[in-house]
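User: Could you walk me through two proteins back to back? I'd like the raw sequence and the structure tokens for each, with a short line separating them so I can tell where one ends and the next begins.

Assistant: Of course. Protein one, sequence then structure:
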Amino acid sequence: MSSKKYVAVVRVRGTVGVKRTIEDTLKRLKLTKPNHVVFYELTPSIEGMIKKVKDFVTWGEVDEKFIKEIEKKASKNKEDDNLYRLAPPLKGYGRKGVKHTFQQKGALGYRGEKIKDLIQRMIR
């Protein structure tokens, strides 16, 4: 069993009114549109980029088994094998929508293991 930690990052919010630095970081993470999901090995640089764009994404830990399961079900982007285009989640992101954190019953920020539930609801 590998000791690598993986994270899933889901872009939740759109592009209107985004600062240039945030937009560049989202592009480096390959999150160009809402409802895109990427999987990364958790490194200090990836963690720093996620924290910078925390007001536009939600993220949490996943394991290799879950990533392989998603690879079979989700539509993959032709240019990048790490990016998946998903539908908006069934029953929405959260009670308060995309402007509040997950801890405030919204959609943004850290979700931990519950990111798996969100991604499952986004696969159709």
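----
Protein two, same layout:
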Amino acid sequence: MNIEVFTFNPFSENTYLIYDDKGTGVVLDPGCMDKAEYDELEDAVRARNIRIQEIILTHAHIDHIFGCARLCQTYGVGLAMHPDDEFLFARAEEMSRVFGLPLVPPPAPSRHFSHGEIYTIGDIGLHIRHTPGHSPGSVSFVNEEAGIIIGGDVLFRNSIGRTDLPGGNTDVLLKSIREQFFIYPDHFRILSGHGPETTIGHEKKHNPFLQQM
């Protein structure tokens, strides 16, 4: 599994390009919102001769969906997400105006993720875990073979996702971390929606929000 990270938009959101060795790939959480950011991502796709099969989301907050409309059109592909976050699409333009940022409304999802399914990207299999709390429809993607969790805004290095946005719930978020993240070994890497990567073991020992767990 090949993973490249790009940090985009004023929220410093991490967008992931994931692809197998044969060149089949996806863009996860496309936060690109201006020409320079689109060019950076699209140049990488072109240089590696990647065939984008779909745009996929960990969740639907605006900083993770700015690029959905353009990339779906550019690559002629659909969008996949968990249905519990669709209400955020309806509020996306409103929320972007609050921050004074442009957002082209994303297309309606072409399909929905469900907890426990295996999502395939060519030769790669990602186990989908429903991890609500930051948002109702947050999902995380796990590759056990590589020891990687791509978790969106659920868990950060020494922090957790905010829960003061619509649909957020701290107790639910902590339950997701305990039951969907901490079931994996300490060496598993967590690739987050913002900031540097971390590991399960580091967060168990050092995350101040999780010491009571």
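The mean pLDDT is 96.

Let me know if you want the two compared in more detail.
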